[in-house]
Amino acid sequence: MNKPRIRAATAADVPAVGEIVDHAYRHYIARIGKPPGPMLDDYAARVSEGSVWVLEEGDLIVAIIVLLPAPNCLLLDNIAVSPARQGLGLGRQLLAFAETEAIRRGYREIRLYTHQTMVENQRLYASIGYEETGRGSEAGYQRVFMRKRLCD
Questions:
Q1: What single DSSP character describes residue 51?
Q2: Helix (H, G, I), strand (E, B), or coil: what is residue 50?
Q3: Which residues of 29-48 are buried (b: 16+ CB within 10 A; e: fewer)?
């Protein structure tokens, strides 16, 4: 298998990005009672604004990350790994990329949110240094808000 590489997504990647998000999140529909927010995003628009990166193995896109600039932090809006490639550290590679990208842009903090029922995600984020900052309803979803402060 070729070494994974992360690059900015292009318009040609939009179908693959949407497919990975759909496959990575569809099992949460039963748990949440509706499609998770990332399944409803406009990835053509996100790619056009330069917010999406893909992780490739060879010519195959196997994971994506969406990073949005905010006034005081970089928002990790979405991360998704193809179910067939989960558990291999690709998500952690993308999370490390997000930290590097945040520092490169001059941010000292990354923020994210996840659904309250996605407890496995909350545990993963906590294990790599994210702390919960609150819970609440936003955009019709019960969310857990988290942040990670970055070193200089």
A1: -
A2: coil
A3: eeebeeebbbbebebeebbe
**pLDDT tens-digit series, residues 125-151:** 999 999 999 999 998 999 999 999 997
Starting at the edge strand found earlier in the chain, the sheet holding 60-69 runs 5-8, 52-57, 60-69, 74-81, 109-115, 141-149, 131-138
**Confidence bin at 87 (pLDDT 50/70/90):** confident
pLDDT band of 31, cuts 50, 70, 90: very high
Q: Which helix (H) or strand (E) holds 53?
A: strand 52-57
Can you tell me which residue has the tokens 């819970």? 135
Asked if 113 contacts 77 with a C-beta cutoff of 8 angstroms, the reply is: no
